[in-house]
Structures are given as structure tokens and as C-alpha cells.
Fold this sequence. Notes:
The structure is a single chain. The protein is an all-alpha fold. It has one domain: CDP-alcohol phosphotransferase transmembrane (TM) domain (Four Helix Bundle (Hemerythrin (Met), subunit A), Up-down Bundle). The chain has seven helices and no strands. α3 packs antiparallel against α6 (131-149), α4 crosses α6 (131-149) and α5 (100-122) packs parallel to α7 (159-189). The longest helix is centred in the last third of the chain and has 31 residues, at 159-189.
Amino acid sequence: MPPTRDLALLTLPNILTLLRIAVIPVMVVLFYLDGETVRWINCGLFTAAAITDFFDGWLARRSNQVSALGRFLDPIADKLLVAAVLMLLVGFGQVSVWSYPAAVIILMREILVSGLREYLAEIQVSMPVTTLAKWKTTVQLVALPVLIVGDLQWLPLPITLLGEILLWGAAVMTMVTGYDYLRVGLRHMVPSR
């Protein structure tokens, strides 16, 4: 008996993507709990979710399980995870006020690029991910768990400051890549003369 369409969608890459989305409410709850151990658990959850971002795509390509659902959910899962953590870090005061603009810049770019990709997909134009955008994602995915853990009493290092510097590095790369994507997108929006 052939597998049903629903079961065919439950590939390992799609399950990893869905787990990345499912971990977000757990992380939200953990932000409301206090203590260093809870922060380490939250850091571990975020790190595991970030690692699945690499493996879901790699597994899908390697096992020839690339699906429309996966292509749809993967970027959404990434953006939901990053946006939720940025808002929680700001909301719970785990970053200084001078890092709020970096968080806003990152969120604005994610929304801009999502809308741009959606528009370009409608006119059947693909917008490949640039190398700088991959670096931006990497720096961002390092900065956020560092900020989740924050300063530790037993370790006299400015961990939060390090995380905020990384966050600003990601924000600068975010502005550059956002501008690059917008420039490419505008070529397809504005009629040539």
C-alpha cells in the first residue's frame, strides 16, 4: 500500500524543521523561570534548534527529500526562532538598551527579505542566499545563545558584552545583505526605461 500524502510529508528534514518551531514555546516559558541552570537549558535548546537548521536542509538534499513543505517552513522556522529570542532578550532586559537597535534592524531585515522573496517568487525570480548572508546567520546564531546565557557569577568575563558585540556584527551584516537583496528585488519591481 503506498504511503499517504500526509505521511510522505513527515520526512526527517521536515520533522527537524517542525521541532525547531515547537521548541519556541518551551523557550518562552523558560525565560520566565529564573536561574543559571534554566538559562543553560534554554541555551542548549536554542543551539540544538540552530543546528537542525543546518541538518534539515543537508538531509533533504542528501536523501532527495526536498519538499514544498520544507522549502516553505524552513525559512519561517528560522525567522520565528530568531525573532522570538530577540524579543525575549529585549523584553527580559538581558541586553542593554544600546543593543535594542541591533535587534530591531535584524527583525526588520527578516521581514523585508521574507516579503521580497514572496514577491519575487510570484514573478518566478529566485533570490539565492549570499555568502555574506550565511555569515550573518552564523554570527547571529552564535550571538543569541551567548546572550541567553548572559553573565555568569562564577566566570568573571563580560559574556553579555561579547554577545552584544556579536549581535551588532550580525546587525551590520544584516543591513548590508538587506540592502543587497532590496537592490536586486527593485530591479524586478521598477520597469526599465
